[in-house]
Specification:
Shape: globular
Low-confidence stretches: none
Distance between the termini: 15 Å
Largest sheet: 2 strands, antiparallel
Order of helices and strands: HHEEHHHH
Strand order of the largest sheet: 1-2
Structural class: mainly alpha
Radius of gyration: 16 Å
Oligomer: single chain
Number of strands: 2
């Protein structure tokens, strides 16, 4: 509910990221250089960073450091947390 309350863009980032910005160079998919990002690209990156910030604010310090080392996008953090906590007593209580 908290993520949805922040705006549809934030929750969509959790559900639909990662937004990997790419371009095709000589028939090969490559990372899109930041100098070529349009407004939509910049917004996707911004929403991912905002979502990561929101997720991080709910984590204990040990979880935050673990997640920040292995996860680079909001979706990766969300999926890891979901897997890590899916069988905990607190999560089962909400089901």
């Amino acid at each position: 509910m908290f993520h949805e309350a922040q705006g549809s863009e934030i929750w969509n980032t959790v559900k639909n990221s990662p937004h990997v910005l790419t371009t095709v160079v000589k028939g090969v998919i490559a990372p899109k250089p930041e100098t070529f990002w349009d407004d939509d690209d910049q917004n996707k990156v911004l929403y991912d960073k905002k979502t990561i910030n929101i997720l991080a604010s709910f984590l204990r310090m040990d979880e935050f450091f673990r997640e920040s080392k292995i996860c680079k996008t909001a979706k990766e953090i969300w999926d890891t947390l979901e897997t890590t906590h899916e069988r905990t007593e607190e999560v089962q209580w909400f089901r």
